[in-house]
Amino acid sequence: MAAADDFPDDIDPTLPGYPDPYPYFHRLREADPVHFSRAMNGWVLTRYHDATEYLCDRRFSRVKLLEDIRANFGDSPIIRLQSGELSFTDAPEHTRIKNVMGKLLAPQAVESMRAEIKAFVVAILDRLASNHRMDVISDFAYELPAETICAMLSVPREDRVRLREYVEGVVLARGVVRTPEMIAAGDRAAREFVGYLTNLVRERRRRGGNDFLSELIRPHGRDDRYVSDDEAVTMAEQFFTAGHATTRNLIGNAILALLRNPGELRRLRENPKQIEAAIEETLRYDPPTQAPSPQMALEDVKIGERTIREGERVSVLFGATNRDPAHFGNPDRFDIAGTDNEHLGFSFGIHFCVGASLARLEAQIAVGALVKRMPDLRLASDTLEWRQMGRFRGLVGLPVEF
């Protein structure tokens, strides 16, 4: 059996920037499946069964975690912003907010965006087609989520570049490990982002509109559907931050997995209807979010062979649970023909990603179009760099030729 000492325990346990963290995750699952990370100052779970049990356990709290973070870093702009996010609320408040956002991001509502998303994808590929070379991340995957969300909220086109910059700063401060530098970057972005969105919400209150933000703040005659200006700002921020980095990374990770597995790429070209399965397999095989925000134990809780003490932090390594051989056959193989793919790429339980339907649709359209339109798509470099972005796994760049 491998030793837990083999795991690089002095850095973020999601191993940001590692080209291939999965062998480490396997060794950790075998040697110490409920592992205390010194860098995170908390526990990480690596087995699928432990993870699903924990993610549904009400004896853990995101609110208590944020209180602990506030005690360490103060009530800074990024902490105040996150205090209203779904990721840092518990039931019943979490339920109320998620019901409001969930109606706007329900599968049938998201499906209404299909034609517009397709048009975005076609326009981007039309612009790039004559170059015979592009960077999938910066030229393609980076643009699509921003275009989609800005269209959903009717944000002026000239504002979209700076909004993407705000998103990067806010996302950087969401890691399972937080440093003063990450908090400072998050504070700068949060100040600008909240100011911009506050003005946008006030403008929609005055004039209304036919977009997701206007629908969000429209009076519905029910107390549980009332959304204050502050809540609307935070919900709009979550549309951007939750939908941008994850979707960008999902598209990039899917294209890379297909290019490195030519048999699966050929299978997808021969049967384009397998695009849904290809995206689900990417979410399992190389998830764009490698861990959820930690929670804090409200009492002593036993997980596996360990006892988590009241006040201790816990998270899940999705990169480990999604390749747990006790749940997935041949887990290190990228196989788009797999069935019953019960991955944790969008988390599980009450914190299952509210924007999952939108991320799936964008990735299916984007990856499907790229594979179909460029039949000789190939990697332009074997040297790839992964982002140092905490719990989010994605490439800095993905140069391809066609």
General description of the model:
The chain is globular. The protein is of the alpha+beta class and 402 residues long. It has one domain (4-401): Cytochrome P450 (Cytochrome p450). It is built from 17 helices and ten strands. It has a five-stranded mixed β-sheet. Strands 4-10-9 form a three-stranded antiparallel β-sheet. α7 packs antiparallel against α9 (143-153) and α9 (143-153) packs antiparallel against α13.
Cα end-to-end separation: 45 Å
Profile the largest sheet. Answer: 5 strands, mixed
How would you describe the shape? globular
Average pLDDT confidence is 92
Which regions are unreliable across 5 or more consecutive residues at pLDDT < 50?
Answer: none
* Strand arrangement across the biggest beta sheet: 1-2-8-5-3
Order of helices and strands: HEEHEHHHHHEHHHHHHHHEEEEHHEE
CATH structural architecture: Orthogonal Bundle
What is the β-strand count? 10
Share of helical residues: 40-55%
Broad CATH class: Mainly Alpha
Binned strand content: 5-15%
Could you give the topology of this structure?
Elements: H1 22-31, E1 34-37, E2 42-45, H2 48-55, E3 60-61, H3 62-73, H4 77-82, H5 93-104, H6 107-111, H7 114-128, E4 133-135, H8 136-141, H9 143-153, H10 160-172, H11 180-207, H12 212-217, H13 229-260, H14 262-270, H15 275-285, E5 295-297, E6 301-303, E7 306-308, E8 313-316, H16 318-321, H17 356-373, E9 378-379, E10 399-401
Parallel strand pairs: 2-8
Antiparallel strand pairs: 1-2, 3-5, 4-10, 5-8, 6-7, 9-10
Helix pairs in contact: 7-9, 7-17, 9-13, 10-11, 10-13, 11-13, 13-15, 13-17, 15-17
